[in-house]
């Protein structure tokens, strides 16, 4: 039964070993391109570890490059512009004050608070610095959106291993972690994230010592069985324990990770194999019960820090224990309480002759891996190509080329094509934008070409625009894939092609996938007809909807009445049949486009009706442009 459960989790919940490895490579590459000269981007949380479980959010850390933390009182070699000294005396283990010792500028002083004649960096002020109209909520050390989809933490780095975690270096002599992994963790150092220990004096001056990157290295060294145990425990926590009365906010996934670390250190690596998945899982459950019974969960790196202190106590602890004892009575079958895991499917051994390649593609299509990441840094294309081709594996080269292409399209959006520039400057900007857009056509089958059409439309070259759109439409065939698409049996047959399999998943997706069209607020490529000056969030459109809308605009400007009516009809049919439309938010954006089209031809009643339909589908005042368009119509 362990092997059946193992196969089920690989197929339906976690993915194969190859899928997890690919997820990690893609995240690492995106982090590389997402980093700037000011900060290093780190994808963290479960997703950063290679897992994308149901209900998980996007955790991102940004580490300042020009700020460094040290616990050495003498600075021997100064590299950073700003230095803080970590003070751990009279602070709960795992936390520190950060005293400013170098870089006493006005900006830094504004983020600091005076205490006992010294300046200390305020964790509260740091978070407030990065709050805006979208990121309106403080969630622990992060700033988040109100839906809790994004968590962004801005961190400081200590390159040296911190003294309070020095015992970990020599503690374990077992087979896990290996000396190589341990050395890698130590060499990275530690991070400091903006949150205190809770409810104490000078709370806003305290920072938590974070081992997030080191923990990723440890998770990466897990066998796939260990990773599946970790995932099972997270599913049990999310779907079962937190749903029990009185248990919602008592346990977090970090406690689960800590328990896995301790067990991995104690048990021989040979125990973590696929045919022992169920016994290993039950060891994890029993350890969780033990920790709750005694209200103790020592931090893996700093055991003096009891993660359960002042948290798992009183009535909450009693309720939690009642739930855990019930789960223990079910044994390993307690996992079937989760709606994600099917009793019948796990018990049916025959279904696991399935194709992991096909299943991994299905997971990627519903993954944040395909989401658009916004880059703003210009790049030296030749230099980046040299770096890409220095990589040893085809897979890593393919991932990096894909991200370079996506980077190009993002840079193209930021190039200003203003009519106020001189003719020479306009020509230069146009050529530069054209250069980046042509490079971006390698990202997927269509999106780069749609951006090229947008550039021609911006320059009022309507016939050129129509030519590119006609070419793009021929590429938008039914076998193409997109984010959130249902993969059919037709696709299964397509993926059986040896030619496609030789390409690998990344190169194959560049040929047969289509991304959504994303315009950022400052983009010069967004058609003026749908641009709102008050819009502060990305404007996301289904690709075929945008194609027909842009076709409609060209015929409108060319006074081609018959073709205008046809393109408007094509737009309506595309929305009605959900062609390349994956969810209600993108369908609402499609209706928004259709409403603008009716506005342009003067059919205001139909426009109002369509905007209302969009609002009913996606009633988000900030993200749905139809609210603003309807308000502007009603004010006339």
UniProtKB/TrEMBL annotation:
Annotated TPR repeat ranges: 588-621
Keyword annotations from UniProtKB, A to Z: TPR repeat
Highest taxon in the source lineage: Eukaryota
Segments forming domain Mab-21-like HhH/H2TH-like: 229-310
Protein name: Mab-21-like HhH/H2TH-like domain-containing protein
Originating species: Mytilus galloprovincialis
Origin organism lineage: Eukaryota, Metazoa, Spiralia, Lophotrochozoa, Mollusca
């Amino acid at each position: 039964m362990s092997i059946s459960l193992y196969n089920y989790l690989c197929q339906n919940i976690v993915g194969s070993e190859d899928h997890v490895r690919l997820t990690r490579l893609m995240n690492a590459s995106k982090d590389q391109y997402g980093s700037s000269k000011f900060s290093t981007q780190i994808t963290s949380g479960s997703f950063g570890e290679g897992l994308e479980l149901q209900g998980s959010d996007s955790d991102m850390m940004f580490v300042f490059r020009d700020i460094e933390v040290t616990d050495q009182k003498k600075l021997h070699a100064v590299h950073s512009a700003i230095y803080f000294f970590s003070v751990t005396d009279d602070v709960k283990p795992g936390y520190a004050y950060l005293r400013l010792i170098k870089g006493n500028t006005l900006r830094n002083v504004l983020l600091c608070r005076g205490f006992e004649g010294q300046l200390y960096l305020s964790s509260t002020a740091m978070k407030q610095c990065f709050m805006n109209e979208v990121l309106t909520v403080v969630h622990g050390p992060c700033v988040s959106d109100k839906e809790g989809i994004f968590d962004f933490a801005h961190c400081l780095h200590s390159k040296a291993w911190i003294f309070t975690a020095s015992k970990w270096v020599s503690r374990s002599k077992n087979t896990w972690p290996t000396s190589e992994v341990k050395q890698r963790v130590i060499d990275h150092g530690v991070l400091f994230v903006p949150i205190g220990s809770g409810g104490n004096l000078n709370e806003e001056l305290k920072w938590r010592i974070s081992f997030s990157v080191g923990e990723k290295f440890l998770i990466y060294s897990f066998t796939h069985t260990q990773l599946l145990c970790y995932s099972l425990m997270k599913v049990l926590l999310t779907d079962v324990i937190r749903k029990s009365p009185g248990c919602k906010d008592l346990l977090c996934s970090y406690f689960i990770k800590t328990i896995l670390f301790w067990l991995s250190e104690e048990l021989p690596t040979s125990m973590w194999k696929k045919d022992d998945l169920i016994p290993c899982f039950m060891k994890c459950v029993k350890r969780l019960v033990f920790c709750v019974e005694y209200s103790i969960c020592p931090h893996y790196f700093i055991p003096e820090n009891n993660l359960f202190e002042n948290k798992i106590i009183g009535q909450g602890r009693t309720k939690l224990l009642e739930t855990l004892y019930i789960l223990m009575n079910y044994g390993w079958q307690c996992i079937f309480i989760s709606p994600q895991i099917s009793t019948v499917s796990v018990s049916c051994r025959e279904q696991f002759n399935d194709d992991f390649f096909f299943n991994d593609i299905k997971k990627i299509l519903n993954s944040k891996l395909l989401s658009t990441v916004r880059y703003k840094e210009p790049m030296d294309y030749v230099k980046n190509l040299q770096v890409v081709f220095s990589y040893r594996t085809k897979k890593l080269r393919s991932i990096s080329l894909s991200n370079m292409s996506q980077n190009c399209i993002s840079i193209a959006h930021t190039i200003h094509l203003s009519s106020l520039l001189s003719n020479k400057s306009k020509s230069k900007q146009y050529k530069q934008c054209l250069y980046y857009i042509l490079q971006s056509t390698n990202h997927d089958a269509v999106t780069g070409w749609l951006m090229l059409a947008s550039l021609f439309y911006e320059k009022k070259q309507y016939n050129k625009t129509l030519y590119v759109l006609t070419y793009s439409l021929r590429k938008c065939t039914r076998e193409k894939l997109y984010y959130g698409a249902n993969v059919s049996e037709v696709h299964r047959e397509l993926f059986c092609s040896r030619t496609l399999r030789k390409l690998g998943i990344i190169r194959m997706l560049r040929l047969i996938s289509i991304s959504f069209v994303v315009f950022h607020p400052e983009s010069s490529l967004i058609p003026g007809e749908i641009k709102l000056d008050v819009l502060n969030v990305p404007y996301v459109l289904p690709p075929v909807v945008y194609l027909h809308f842009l076709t409609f605009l060209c015929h409108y400007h060319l006074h081609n009445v018959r073709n205008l009516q046809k393109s408007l009809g094509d737009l309506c049919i595309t929305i009605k049949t959900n062609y390349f439309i994956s969810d209600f938010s993108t369908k609402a954006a499609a209706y928004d486009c259709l409403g603008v089209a009716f506005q342009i031809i003067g059919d205001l009643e139909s426009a109002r009706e369509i905007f209302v339909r969009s609002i009913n589908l996606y009633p988000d005042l900030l993200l749905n442009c139809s609210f603003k368009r309807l308000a502007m119509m009603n004010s006339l």
